[in-house]
Amino acid sequence: MASAAEQLVANINFSAIGKATELKKRLWFTLGALVIYRLGAYIPIPGVDPVVLEDVFQQQAGGILGMFNMLAGGALGRMTIFALNIMPYISAAIIMQLMTTVSPHLEQLKKEGEVGRKKINQYTRYATVFIAALQAYGISIGLEGMSGSRGSAVMDPGLFFRFTTVVTLTGGTIFLMWLGEQITARGVGNGISLIIFSGIVAGLPAAIASTLELGRTGALSTFFILLLITMVIVVVTFIVFIERAQRRIVVQYPKRQVGSRMFGGESTHLPLKLNTAGVIPPIFASSILLLPITVAGFNAGQGPEWLATMSAYLGRGQPLFMSLYAAGIIFFCFFYTAIVFNPADTADNLKKHGGFVPGIRPGKNTAEYLDYVLTRLTVVGAIYLTAVALLPEFLIAKFALPFFFGGTSLLIVITVTMDTVAQIHSHLLAHQYEGLIKKSKLRGRR
């Protein structure tokens, strides 16, 4: 497994990057766009007292706001123009993906290729604006109700504050959506993923500093810190290994004669990832479970008694929370995998193009076989996701670590890094291929 982590860096020839002019431009553009994003994460929205807001977010660190603040790189806790981050766009994309399974119109658009994809992307943008405006209005109402030891979080509540908050936060999300699309088109890697990645990584230095401070004061022993470093290396290697793992199903295409020429007869494979659902299941499961804790925190001493009791049982590190969290991850693994991969459609596409799995009849039998394989892969993937997601909960409950080691954040960081490295590697291969073509043309002229 150690070779899997080393291969990520080994795939990049850093000396070749300096010679690839196009790749250098793309890397500088990506870096500049991420710097702009991080600068915007420190520009506060008008009319909010940052001191009171900091007190409130310290109380809500274990709730759903703490998780979204981590994904936003601290922008939500500082209530900046990028407080919503890119999450409304991700929510809209997931909703559109779900709608394609129930709406015949969207399902038809999905099958139309590039034209249909552009229309679905346009619908996703409209949904993003609606969701961002709705969430921004909810945040403005919530801010007016927040109060700390130094008074209210909003200096001048009212209709004008709500309007400016909705416009500012919605505009920030739309700008990030545009910025992410620009990174994807003119930079390196997936722009939306890199924005979330940079937000998570931005909190890493503070987490390392707080851990070392606990070691200096004696709260954590030197042996435990060394053990934690070793655990980081092992877990990262394990995640890289699993994320690259796939089951390759052999697909055979028969020979066919067109005129006097013979075509086909080649053998290829259909790759099925071990973790088909990605990081969606932990995000969904944690969001649902952390919602009661957040509501109870905002209504401390004022809400019904059953809400306080439920939030106590669903507190982080509690056995009930751990059990429900694991059950939620497993459920969403199967649910989301069933949405993103349809065995019947895949079997029909193979049959249309003359492909077949050796030993399996085309059509219904192939669909049943793919479903059989995918179900067993999803079982292993669900166990893997559950173990990685529960690791930080266990460490925080038992050892009071000041940061989330593992879980959703670590999965996002590693998968985005792997994807970006793969794209850099493909750009380098394209540059080397262009160089070989130019050399062959020069030799041909001689």
In short, what is this structure?
It contains 18 helices and six strands.
Write a structural description:
The chain is mostly helical and 446 residues long. The protein has two domains: 20-202, Preprotein translocase SecY subunit (Orthogonal Bundle); 227-446, Orthogonal Bundle (Preprotein translocase SecY subunit), CATH 1.10.3370. The chain is built from 18 helices and six strands. The protein has helices at 2-10, 14-19, 21-40, 50-59, 64-71, 87-99, 104-110, 114-145, 159-186, 191-202, 204-217, 222-244, 280-298, 305-313, 319-340, 343-352, 364-399, 407-445; strands at 147-148, 151-152, 246-252, 255-258, 261-264, 267-273. It has a two-stranded antiparallel sheet. It has a two-stranded antiparallel sheet with strand order 3-6. A two-stranded antiparallel ribbon has the order 4-5. β4 (255-258) and β5 form a beta hairpin. α8 (114-145) packs antiparallel against α9, α10 packs across α18 and α16 (343-352) runs antiparallel to α17 (364-399). The longest helix has 39 residues, at 407-445. The relative contact order is 0.11. Mean pLDDT is 80; it is low at 1-6.
How do the strands and helices of this protein lay out in sequence?
Layout: H1 2-10, H2 14-19, H3 21-40, H4 50-59, H5 64-71, H6 87-99, H7 104-110, H8 114-145, E1 147-148, E2 151-152, H9 159-186, H10 191-202, H11 204-217, H12 222-244, E3 246-252, E4 255-258, E5 261-264, E6 267-273, H13 280-298, H14 305-313, H15 319-340, H16 343-352, H17 364-399, H18 407-445
Antiparallel strand pairs: 1-2, 3-6, 4-5
Helix pairs in contact: 1-12, 3-9, 3-10, 6-8, 7-8, 8-9, 9-10, 10-18, 12-18, 13-14, 13-15, 15-17, 16-17
